[in-house]
Amino acid sequence: MKFFLDTANLDEIRDAAAFGIADGVTTNPTLISKEGDVDFKEHIAAICEIVSGPVSAECTSEDTEGMLREGREYAQIAPNVVIKCPLTRAGLKATKQLSSEGIKVNVTLCFSAAQAILAAKAGASFISPFIGRLDDIGENGLFLLSDIVEIYRNYSWPTEVLAASIRHPIHAIEAARMGADIATMPFKVIDQMFNHPLTDKGQAQFLADWRKSGRK
Fold first, then answer.
1. 3-state secondary structure of 55
2. DSSP 3-state of 89
3. Rounded distance, CA 84 to CA 72, Å?
4. Tens digits of per-residue pLDDT, 89-129?
5. What angle do CA 180, 107, 142 make, to 5 degrees?
6. Is pTM, for the whole model, over 0.85?
7. Which residues carry out catalysis?
8. pLDDT value at position 129?
9. Structural domain span for residue 111
10. Contacts 24+ apart (CB under 8 A), 145-149
11. What's the number of domains the chain is made of?
């Protein structure tokens, strides 16, 4: 399973890249806005210089023509830019056209298996079910993820399943168990995946024993 970083923060992306686990990056308008008054295209370009894998840049137009205009423009930023289109009627029309032009599209804001089927049929390169947001309203987002993985396997569709809106390490573990192609998560979740009290305890004991031996 590939790990994408769900952030627009350059320092976080550099840290994840240093760990060797940043296979790509997903951004959205909210994440970009958190970085202050940055030039959108310049910021995406900076991310693409750090990460060689897919970097998602989201359209903000609501109509198909606007998404097509933005998608074609953003695709020129770097070869690894992927265009994010929402799972709306206009978004899928844009997805179909952009995909036919050889531009990869990440269809975002997926909340049902039916929507995921439509995205695959429209030629999406990635489908992003938002599992955490379903959990937030009392549903189990992992059930949706499991359904999409099963359906896509039935037909060997090339669309990659990208588990999004990951809230904690258990989401990432379960996504891996189900066979999701990608998990995109905030840096804090990746950082949490390192943690285990027995690792800390063992390391402390090893170092204490080394010091007692008098070796340098």
1. strand
2. helix
3. 12
4. 999 999 999 999 999 999 999 999 999 999 999 999 999 99
5. 35
6. yes
7. 84
8. 98
9. 2-212
10. 145/174, 145/175, 145/178, 145/180, 146/178, 147/113, 147/116, 148/110, 148/113, 148/116, 149/178, 149/179, 149/180
11. 1
